[in-house]
Design brief:
313 residues; alpha/beta; Ubiquitin-like (UB roll); Rossmann fold; 2 domains; 9-stranded mixed β-sheet; 11 helices; 21% strand
């Protein structure tokens, strides 16, 4: 539960002399999912289901005309100061009549903060329910790639309910040095700002996001090697290379990479090939394995293969 004025650091000032007086507004509350259940269900059902009081439209129209007349007396900088402090004249009048946004219930979000949702929806302590555009707020929320679907409802006299359905991040994708969080269909949904996506599969290369399913199949077939795989690199939009956390590069074939993965598992279990002093393991030729040694390992192997001189008698 969070105050809108607290979230935005805003405080309502004293209205100008010509402005309509208003009763002090109660702090706006942001109710997250689960809080409604802890409060009495009957109490919240009654309150949230309450329709707009009879005659609200006529009263608001009369009050709005009066407010516009009073606002007309505020000229130049005075009016701008009033608008910056109190919002629109209509919002000011509606709040004075008790139709300010006193509480916002948000549910369904996990990757997006309440502050970001309130900002996207255009809600602040200057908002009023009659002049809050729920349809526009929904469009603004759904314009965020991470949000798959949003529902925004106004419940009179002072409540807004926002339900969010987020896209589920499935992997990290790197292209041209830029990182993006992507959904299972490859759609970009977020730009990583912290480490929240670090545990997701990591794919690299043009088009790798659209072939995430292939890489996930390789991960599923990698058994105990899965924690050792740092990333999958799509090469020429044809085949995958695996970058191991040790730095070793495993080159998989374009055709039947799952069989090559099975061969890699056998080699690792029998000879610990990935733990040796090698730079890469090439499995692109069916039934064959080529290992590229590091300079030190290559020199040591060359020395071991040289014929030893016979000992002098």
């Amino acid at each position: 539960m969070q105050s809108l004025s607290g979230a935005y650091g805003l405080r309502l000032g004293t209205p100008p002399a010509l402005a309509l007086a208003r009763a002090p507004a109660a702090p706006v509350r942001v109710l997250l999912r689960g809080e409604r259940g802890r409060r009495g269900a009957g109490r919240w059902t009654l309150r949230l289901a309450k329709p707009a009081p009879a005659g609200v439209g006529l009263a608001l129209a009369i009050a709005l005309l009066g407010g516009v007349t009073a606002a007309g007396a505020l000229t130049g900088g005075e009016y701008r100061e009033f608008a910056a402090r109190e919002g629109g004249v209509g919002d000011y009048v509606a709040r004075a009549l008790g139709f300010g946004v006193a509480a916002v219930t948000i549910s369904g979000q996990s990757q997006i903060s309440e502050r970001e949702i309130l900002s996207l929806a255009g809600l602040s302590d200057k908002s009023s329910l009659p002049f809050f555009d729920a349809a526009q707020a929904r469009k603004a929320l759904e314009a965020l790639p991470l949000i798959k679907q949003a529902s925004v409802r106004k419940l009179y006299p002072d409540h807004v309910v926002i339900d969010i359905v987020e896209r589920t991040p499935a992997a990290l994708w790197q292209k041209d040095g830029a990182l993006s969080a992507i959904a299972s269909d490859g759609a970009v949904i977020d730009a990583p700002k912290d480490g929240r996506y670090d545990g997701l599969p990591f794919v690299v290369g043009d088009g790798a996001n659209e072939r995430l399913g292939e890489f996930n199949a390789l991960l599923d077939a990698s058994a105990e090697l899965k924690p050792k795989i740092a990333a999958g690199i799509l090469v020429g939009d044809r085949r995958w290379d695996l970058k191991m956390r040790s730095g070793v590069e495993v080159k998989l074939p374009e055709n039947d990479p799952l069989s090559a993965m099975a061969m890699l598992l056998t080699l690792q279990r029998q000879s610990r090939i990935l733990d040796r002093d090698v730079l890469s393991v090439d499995l692109r030729e069916p039934g064959k394995v080529f290992a590229r040694l590091s300079e030190q390992a290559a020199a040591a192997r060359l020395a071991a293969l040289k014929p030893k001189k016979a000992a002098s008698p």
